[in-house]
Design brief:
By secondary structure, the protein is of the alpha+beta class. It is 63% helix and 13% strand. It has eight helices and six strands. Strands 3-4-6-5 form a four-stranded antiparallel β-sheet. A hairpin with a 2-residue loop joins strand 3 and strand 4. It is globular, with a radius of gyration of 20 Å. The model has no long low-confidence stretch (mean pLDDT 95).
Length: 239
């Protein structure tokens, strides 16, 4: 490998190490101080580290920052930015799948599902907290707040979902098209049995938006479901 490629490989590896160190810091603070305090610290750290890292990168690469955003990206049209956003969401899902498969191939489906479900128990509250902060939802935004939050999840930019009101105190959320399940169907495979992970994922997400919200699974693989959706959930508040 020539020197140029060797240095570039180091650059990419240094970014990888930085991401891992960042995640391990959060994990340890969460372990020692609890989830809520760790999320509050994470929010503070992200604002600072984003500014420090982006401005240093801009200085080295020779681009301008505008309103704390890279000027070259701001010069893209909105359709290209949406394409970039959606690609980032798909990359998140691909990363999730690669972790699952790595554990599955090494230790089997049972251990992969255990790791997956536990991971969702941490990621869903984090994503909910991030969305709640970004959208200024407040602490008790109720079902309307949850609707907005569900529409801002990474999944909302990967899959096709819908929300329908059921009563004044409940609504139904359906995942109409699921990228993971569709890929399995194309290969002639059964649906992935994601109900155990979904119960953790949706319950913890909803409670993190508003602890009064109750979550009920209407159907999720391995449950049988109609062709119109893969999984469906009821969210309600008892008034």
């Amino acid at each position: 490998m020539d020197e140029k490629k060797e240095v570039l490989v180091q650059v990419m590896d240094f970014w990888h190490r930085t991401i891992m160190h960042y995640a391990l810091w959060f994990s340890e603070v969460q372990h020692q101080k609890g989830e809520q305090k760790a999320l509050e610290i994470l929010n503070s750290v992200f604002k600072q580290t984003y500014s420090v890292q982006m401005n240093r990168l801009a200085k080295v690469m020779g681009f301008e920052m505008s309103d704390d955003l890279p000027q070259p990206l701001l010069e893209l049209n909105v359709d290209k930015l949406k394409e970039l956003r959606d690609a980032a969401a798909v990359n998140w899902l691909a990363n999730d799948g690669l972790w699952f498969q790595a554990v599955e191939f090494k230790y089997g489906m049972n251990d992969a599902k255990r790791c997956n479900d536990s991971c969702w128990g941490h990621f869903s509250p984090f994503e909910a907290y991030t969305i709640k902060t970004n959208l200024n939802l407040g602490e008790n935004s109720g079902l309307e707040g949850l609707k907005k939050a569900l529409s801002d999840r990474l999944y909302a930019f990967v899959n096709e979902q819908e929300i329908t009101n059921e009563t004044d105190h409940s609504f139904i959320f359906r995942m109409k098209k699921c990228r993971v399940q569709a890929a399995r169907n194309r290969k002639g495979l059964d649906d992935y049995p994601c109900k155990s992970g979904g119960l953790v994922e949706y319950t913890s997400f909803a409670e993190s938006i508003d602890p009064r919200i109750k979550t009920e699974c209407i159907g999720c693989p391995p449950d049988k479901h109609p062709e119109e959706w893969f999984c469906a959930w009821r969210f309600s508040i008892n008034e």
